[in-house]
Amino acid sequence: MENLDFILIIKMIIIGIVQGFTEPIPVSSSGHVMIASELLGLGEQGFTFAILTNTASLLAIMFIYRKDIIRLAANSLLYIKTKESTYKSDFRFVLYLIIGTIPAGVLGVLLKDLIAESVSMTTIAIMLFVTGIALWLIRNRRGSKGEGTMTAKDAFLVGLGQAAALTPGISRSGATIISAIAVGLDQKTALRFSFLLYIPVSLGGVVLGISDFLNESNKADLAIPYAAAFIATLLMSYYALRWFMGIMEKGKLIYFAYYCFIVGVLLLIFF
Q: Which enzyme class (predicted)?
């Protein structure tokens, strides 16, 4: 293997690590991937690469929540079939996930080309400040709503937060968790709803990106680097989410606010 190819693989692994680590935590994975790509001299990564790494993160999240996914799907089908109250709460939770998906799903389709356009480092810095301020504002909030007391309105408002995260620099997990805590959900429900809400939107992104991937002119040349990035993202997303679950249990989101402020300042100074 040529030296240049080996260097590219290493760089792609680094990008995969960055994507995987920042996807589950409230600091904007898309913004950090752009920063890392700039520092590594790779330039802006294309829509196909974003879909590939997001798919890796999706698989990691689905694996962690696999028992919840299976239970929700099975019990929802049982409720539709039997109408037994035992399964009603899971059926309702699935409906809330559908409601929460609508804002980002609609805007994602309408603004697909706009979202894929180049975004400046200044924009990312500003959006990191916005994320940091939002994290700061909810730092002491402890919601009391669980799955049983959550409403369709709560789900839609969290969905609006996810739609806002279509902007690079706005963290998807941060926007949804902040929105969930703001409407009064407890930490556990906020975390669970946030990441289960990521699944349908991410799957939709994969479907929208299939044609871009198939039309990628040099995908054969990038097969090994892309595969390396995919594996790195998959593994890092898994461990990062496990770590973040512990952070959420302790209610220490304030540290991510500090981080967003620091990175935002550094971007404004050096880029």
A: hydrolase
Q: How many whole angstroms separate alpha carbon 56 and alpha carbon 142?
A: 32
- Are 141 and 183 a contacting pair, CB within 8 Å? no
Q: Are 186 and 146 in contact (CB under 8 A)?
A: yes
Rg, the chain, Cα only: 19
Q: 3-class DSSP state for residue 171?
A: coil
The angle at the Cα of 123, spanning 211 to 174, to the nearest 5 degrees, equals: 75
Give the pLDDT confidence of 193-249 residue by residue, as tens digits.
999 999 988 888 777 677 666 666 666 667 888 899 999 999 999 999 999 999 988
Residue from 189, 165, 173, 170 nearest 249 by CA: 189
Kindly state the tokens that stand for 262: 């620091």
How far is the C-alpha of 182 from the C-alpha of 186, rounded, in Å?
Answer: 10
